[in-house]
Amino acid sequence: MRSRMICFVAGVVLATWQPTLIPLHSCISIALLLALFYIKSSLPHRTLICLFGLGFLYTTVWGHWQIEHRLPESQVRTDWIVKGVVEGLPQRAENAQRFYLGVTEIQSVAEEDSPPELRRLRLSWFKAPIEVKSGQQLSVEVRIKPPHGLINPEGFDYERWLFVRGVDATGYVRRFIEVEGEDQLSVHTLREKINIHIQNQHPEVRTKALLSALITGDKQALSQEDWESLRNSGTVHLAVISGLHIGFMAFVGWWLGRVVGFIFRSSIQRTFHYLFSLALAGGYVLVAGAELPAQRAYIMLVALLVSGWRLFYLDHWSRWWTAVTAVLLFSPLAVWEVGFWLSFTAVALLIWLGQWRLNWREGVKLQGWLLLGMLPLYILFFSGVSLIAPVINLVAIPLVSVLVPLEFLNLSLSLIGLDWLVPIVEWLTVIFWWLVDSASSFSWSFIEVSPSSIWVLLLLCVAVFILLMPKGIVPKSLCLFFFLPVLVGVNTEQNEEDQFQAWVYDVGQGLSVLVEVGDYRLLYDVGIAYRSGGNAFERAVQPHLKAKRVDSLQHVILSHDDIDHVGGYQAVKEHYHIEQLITSFPKGESSGYCRKGDHWRVGEVSFKMIAGSVGRDDNDKSCVLLVENRNCRLLLPGDISKEQEARLSIDGKIDWLVAAHHGSKTSTSSKFLQRLRPENVIFSAGYANHFNHPHPDVVQRVKQHSTRIFNTAVDGAIVLKGSSQSGCVTQTIRKDEKRFWRSF
Q: In terms of Cα–Cα distance, which of 550, 500, 505, 515 is closest to 685?
């Protein structure tokens, strides 16, 4: 049985790596061939081969089903009258609300467009006249577009996140029509009512944030500082509902079932234990939002309890594979989720360590062994590990195991006006945060470790595997050999003296470019700030810098004072040491203005300011930077106009031109293109932006003069490599790392 599940899962995993899905007619042909093979073949393992193929076909068909419902590109930025039900917990900011809307009816505002078969929308609503609540039946006019996200190195894959959650379009509310009828009674409304009750019952901000995260899975109120403390102390898993929390509730349900069974003595007394345990844990999973870790835990719990209930044997590894298979049946792309690997690996380690028959004294070491076993994943996903986690979790886990059922009991009692448990709950949360803050305050609590290559990480896995093996099979000292590359930080990249790399990040309607020469880094512009809060720098650029372990920037250039170019500066200032800031506008902490003729060298790479700080407006005052080595030239002109382009003292072939003003028709003139003869022109623009950038006239002009055109909205982040040996190489994230759930 286990081997069959393994083969099915292997087929699912392989199918998720498809750059584009194989056509449905090919799926039918493959299915018929597999059926014929199973019937006619006499191979002993034909069942396993067919299950592998079945897993592959299942995932492919599932992918087609999801894509079939997605809003087509031909209807980008179209307006619709939509009726639907608010699902999940709405997110609220100062001037905006974001929520899911389950579509029940849709019609076009223009009337000539045929309505798409949309299931679920993710909408933003700025300055809404009403407060959006779970279960509301809304009728609104919306402007929507196909699911699309920023694609950057080490960045969050928003498109996959939407795909997994069945979101067929995103957009914003243009006009409120009405709220129809009463709020529907559902799990969503129950979750929100519980959340509201928690907010009203507890005045302390961190108490409300922790209890909402533990009870309803709502983590909005946890601040960035809270997450940093949880990460540094190794207790993040306690704030994200997972198997540990489901186990708490199952344990409470088991004993509650025993009490009920004792009171109602009957032939089914034993059944109460299992029913109450499954019911209480299942109810908790629903109230908590049924996220992936909770699904995995509950499926494993069902496998454990049902086998005991019906008196048939199912070993722990079979239960583990049952849970993996069931989760992937529900959502095949779960294999791309960090939580999938963390949760299943942690349970696998518990099963493996449980075979050692640890006594209670050795059980204290369990947290240390878990930390060791999870080390490669921590380094891969978080670029570090909390050394204090084994100690703090010995106290924090029992504390949370008491806090979760106690808060549910408190909520139940408060329904009849009894708030007896409120002080105890608040006291426990204060203790929890005190433990977390105290543990994270040590400078050594979280050690950053970033492997230089995947091969170093694989060697670390071998070292951990040796340590986790039973004694006597392999000498434990052998692990030191495999640990060395991680400890000494072997660098497999060879940089030429005159080589530079540049990343034109996908920041939406804005610009941010990182230029790197060895250990020298220059950041040109920092992307847009959003009116709903946050900025593109933290979403698109910072994850890449963090993965590269960058803590200092030698130069930051803010080309001009527009929000789409300087919106993320405060985030840059907070997280990185800036050796020199250069701007074209007054800035209190600025180290200087950009001036024509300014230049400096890093190795064999030259940086020269072609223009800056002079012009009729902010756009024309943009800092214009030329980066070049012996073979390649990159020009960053900011948002200058055609008139300013004509004044630039630059001629000769340009390998990469980042088009001025995101492709506005006021820039990138034919004369300018004739002078520069750019080999590659790059537009940094937002997907389906309302400015219509890049303008069709500009694109047409560029096509007449340029060999290749790139657009961050279509290509994602663009990597430029200037080398004396390899030449001037251009790579794109979206096309070079193509995935079937991504647009284009």
A: 505
For the domain made up of 74-184, give the CATH fold: OB fold (Dihydrolipoamide Acetyltransferase, E2P) (2.40.50)
Structure tokens belonging to residue 250: 């199952």
- pLDDT at residue 606, rounded to an integer: 95
Class level of CATH domain 500-736: alpha beta
pLDDT score at 451: 61
Report whether pLDDT(483) > 80.
no
Determine phi and psi for 486, rounding to 5 degrees: -75, -40
For residue 469, the 8-state DSSP code is S
**Which residues, 6 or more positions from 487, have their beta carbon under 8 angstroms from its beta carbon?**
none
Q: What length does the chain have?
A: 744
Confidence of residue 177 (pLDDT cuts 50, 70, 90): very high
As a whole number of angstroms, the distance between CA 599 and CA 602 comes to: 10
pLDDT of residue 361: 56
Torsion of CA 194, 200, 206, 212, to 10 degrees: 0
Report which of 481, 409, 396 is spatially closest to residue 439, judged by C-alpha positions.
396
Average pLDDT score over residue span 370-386? 84
**What's the pLDDT score for residue 450?**
67
Mean pLDDT, rounded, for 651-661? 93
User: Distance (Å, rounded) from C-alpha 733 to C-alpha 451?
Assistant: 21
Q: Pairing mode, if any, of strands 552-558 and 520-524? A: parallel
Beta-strand ranges (E) seen in 68-215 are: 78-92, 96-108, 120-126, 137-145, 169-179
Torsion angle of C-alpha atoms 49, 51, 52, 56, degrees rounded to 10:
140
Q: Which residues contact 283 (CB under 8 A, 6 or more apart)?
A: 249
Amino acid at 625: L
For the entire predicted model, the pTM comes to 0.88
**Domain limits, the chain:** 2-69, 74-184, 190-335+387-440, 454-488, 500-736
Dig out the tokens for 75 from the structure: 């209807």
Highest mean pLDDT pick, 179-193, 487-501, 598-612: 598-612
Greater model confidence, 300 or 19? 19
Q: How far is CA 732 from the centre of its chain?
A: 20
Give the closest residue to 511 by CA, choosing from 532, 534, 540.
540
